[in-house]
Amino acid sequence: GTQPTDAQKADPNYMTGYNAAQKAADNGAQAFLNGQAHPDDSTPTGKAAAAAYDAAKKGYTDAAADAQSGKEPTDAQKADPSYMKGYQAYKDSQTGYTGAGTDTKPAADAPQAAQDAYNGAIAGAKDGAAGAPKESDLATKSQAYQDAYNKAYDDAAAGAKAGYQDGSQSGTPTDLTNKSAIYKQAYAAAKAKADAEATAGAADFAQGKSAPTTATAASQYGYDRAKAGFDDANAGKPAQSTDAAYMAGYNAGLKHYTTVNNTAQDDALSGKGRQDANLDDADKAAYDQAYARTIAGLNDGANGAAKAYPDDANYLKGYAAGQAVKALLADKQNNTKTAVDDQASYDLANQAYLQAQDDVKNGRAKAPNNQNPVYVLAYDLAYDQLLKEKEAQGTATSAEPTATTTTDNVTPATKSSVLPATGEETTAANNSGLILGLAASFLGLFAAAKRNKRDEK
């Protein structure tokens, strides 16, 4: 970097050597920037080229360190053209690398180091994210290109790995706070890919397909998560997660669970009896429990018992119906009108009450016109209550026949209680004290049939 004196400038021989050394130095510094091999220093010009190569390399390396520490080159370093070429090349390369992360391509007249770093980062990010091998001729590229390529390759590879893993497993996702733009881009792309595969796996489960043996980690994860969601829903559990694959299975399971439960509730409260003969084992178990809990709730609600299963929708459905019966009977006694959760059952209980009132008034035997358990329960309780009131007034005695009457060859109804015969339901029946009354009411149906026959004669 030392400039010749006037006397030296006047010496042709000196200037020839000076210019040759200057050119060698320029070539040496550029050789480093171009990613070329270290010059041969066995000749005077070779020594100049090698020295410049080393100076440019040091300037490049120092610039990388100074970017972290905030230092600036010394005056002596600033006076060395080769050193400053390397120093500036690094700074320019960072501009290009940053542009690659934001998809901002350098202008056509931008420094070569900036353009090389941009191109290297783009290529490295692509290969790293895809898990492809590095460029075979990378060593022949400029230093800015090589460094940007390697850095972007590593960042993208790490981001892609983290993104795919986060999309293929449960747990805390990767913290992206201090990650580079290239890392984040690769992460997002890999995460999206894993999410898509997981969604496909979840859809396979929801559609009843078997998990393929060639499933990717993400699709298998999605399949397994959907199965977990489905199982939770069918067990009546609240959702345990919000991830898409789990919820796909959970929603499918919830639909299935709700269908089975609603069917069981409807069958229980309509008096159809169990309709589980054609169900598979899992659905039969769910149906039978739902059916039993509905009937148990009906009895407990009518009896004013504490809720035995406060979190079971089936039990609560029956309980609301039983509460409606209880409210209707109280309203009739007190001449009030109670707001209930199950208005339909309240209205049905009112119909049963009116029949019981008419039957007691006219001295008819207990015989409900409707086998719906809500109706039978309301009728039975109302009949007994009204009959006691009538008897207390001394106006009539009970006209109810015994269960053993077999006139007209009518076989007495068997005592098939509204509750199915399981331990849980037997306990519920004993607690309510109502099931025997329901069975007796069914017997009354046959008494009504006999009465109708006599009336026809």
Automatic annotation (TrEMBL):
Domain of life, per lineage: Bacteria
Chain segments carrying region Disordered: 29-87, 94-113, 392-414
Membrane-spanning residues: none
Native organism: Fructobacillus tropaeoli
Chain ranges of the Gram-positive cocci surface proteins LPxTG domain: 419-457
InterPro entries according to UniProt: LPXTG_anchor
Protein name: Cell wall surface anchor family protein
PROSITE patterns to which the protein is assigned, alphabetical: GRAM_POS_ANCHORING
Keywords: Cell wall, Peptidoglycan-anchor, Secreted, Signal
Bias-annotated ranges (Low complexity): 45-54, 395-414
Pfam family, one: Gram_pos_anchor
Keyword Oxidoreductase attributed: no
